[in-house]
Amino acid sequence: MVRSRAQLALSTRLMNVGLAALCRGGWLDRAESVLVDAIRLGLPPDVVAYNTLLAAHCRVAGLDAGLAVVHRMREAGVRPDAVTYNSLITVADRSGLTVRALDLFDEMLRSGVAPDSWSYNALMHCLFRSGHPEHAYRVFADMAEKGVAPCATTYNTLLDGLFKAGHATNAYRMFRYLERAGLPVGIVTYNTIINGLCKSGKVGYARMVLKELGRTEHAPNAVTYTTVMKCCFRYGRFEQGLETFLSLLEGGYISDAFPYTTVISALVKKGRMQEANTYCELMIQSGSTFDNACYNTLIHLRCQEGKLDDAFELLNMMEEGGLESDEYTFSILVNGLCKMGQIEAAEKQVWSMEMMGMQSNVVAYNCFIDALCKSHEVDAAIKVLHSMKLKDNFTYTSLVHGLCKVGRYHMASKFLRICLHEGNNVLASAKRAVISGLRSAGFKNDLRKVRSALYIARLLRS
C-alpha cells in the first residue's frame, strides 16, 4: 500500500518524538534500532531525526561520535543544517577543541549552511574560553555584518567573556548600553553582570546592580544574592554580606542550606561564635537537607569552640545519614584535635584518612606535621612528610621551623634544599632561622649550600 505524503510526514514526526524520548532517557541503542527499523519499513529519517541522534552521541561519546552520525546523514542523502553544526561546535567547545570548532564553522560556511545566532554564540564562547577575546569580538562584528540578530544569550556570552578577559569596565558599560537601548536584559544577564563585578572586586557596583534588579520585573534569585553575599565576605565587607543574607532570607529566596553554610563559615572566621550558632539553629529549623558542606561547616564551628565531642557526634550523624567523610572533614577534625593537643587522636584520623585513599589531603597532613613540630616530635614529623604523596610550602615551612627550634640546623638545611629543589618555597622567617642557626653553629659548608640553593631558586623564579 502506497502511503500519502501526509501519512509519511505524520509517521516521521511521531518517529522523531520517539527518538527524542529515547535519547533523553539515555537509551541510545534503542534509538538506533528505531532508526534502522524505520529505514527498513520505507520511512527515511529526516534531518531532525539525525540531529537528535547526533546530539545524544555527542553528549555520551564526544565529537568523533557526532561526526560519525554526520557521515551517515550524508550517505543517506540528508543534508546537515545549522542545528547539526551548532551541536558539533558546542561539543568541540566543551572539549576544549578550539581549532576543531573553527574548522567546523568554516565547513558550515563552505557547505552553504547559513549560521544562526546559536552558531555565533557557540563560536564566541569557544574563543573566549580558549583565551582569544579579540577573535570573539570579530565573530560578533561579523554576526552584525551578516544581519544575524543577537539574542539574550549572545549578550550574556559577550558580558561573561569580557569579565573573564579582565575588561570589567567595558562589560559594565555594555550592560548599561543594553539597558538604554531596550535590548533583552533578563535575570541571567543580571546574574552574569553581578557575578562578573563580584569576581572583579567591584562590590559596590555589584550591590548597586542588585538594588536596581529589585526595582525591575525580574525577581532576584538565590544565585544573585548568594553571589553578592560571598563577594562581600571575600573582600572584607562583612556587615554588607550579612545584610545581603538577611535580604535573601526575608525574600524567601533560600531553597537549600548553602547560603546558611556561607554565612556561618564567615562568622566562624571572624570569631563571632554566638552569631554562628544562631544561624546554625536557623539552618536546622529551615528543614533543609544537609549535605557534606553543611556537616563540615557545623563540625568546623564545634572544633573552633573546642567542643570536640559535639563535633564527633555530628560526624556520626553525618555517616548514619549515608554521607561519607571527605578531605575537608578530615582536615577540620585533624586541625581541631591538634589545636586541643590531642596528637594521638589526630594521628588516628590521619590513619583513617589514608585507609580511605585520601593520601593527597595536604591540608590535614600539614596540620598534623605542624602539631608534631610544636610538640618537638620532629622525627615523627619527618616520617609523616616522607609518607605524603604531595607536599607544599607550608609542609616544609612547619618542618624547617620545628627542626630549628630543637637545634637541628643541619637537618633543617637539608629539608630546605629539598624543598627548593622540588620547586616549593618556605616562609622568609624559616629561611632566616636556618641561616642564623647554621651561622651560630659554625656549619659553614651547609650555609654555603643553602645560600647557593636560594640563589638558584630566585633565578629560576625570575
Automatic annotation (TrEMBL):
InterPro entries: PPR_P_subfamily (IPR050872), PPR_rpt (IPR002885), TPR-like_helical_dom_sf (IPR011990). Pfam families: PPR, PPR_2. It comes from the Eukaryota. Keywords: Repeat, Signal, Transit peptide. Residues 1-20 form the signal peptide. The keyword Membrane does not apply. Gene3D superfamilies: Tetratricopeptide repeat domain. PROSITE patterns: PPR. PPR repeats lie at residues 46-80, 81-115, 116-150, 151-185, 186-220, 221-255, 256-290, 291-325, 326-360, 361-391, 392-426. PANTHER family: MITOCHONDRIAL GROUP I INTRON SPLICING FACTOR CCM1, PENTACOTRIPEPTIDE-REPEAT REGION OF PRORP DOMAIN-CONTAINING PROTEIN. Belongs to the PPR family. P subfamily. This is Pentatricopeptide repeat-containing protein. It comes from Miscanthus lutarioriparius. The lineage of its organism: Eukaryota, Viridiplantae, Streptophyta, Embryophyta, Tracheophyta.
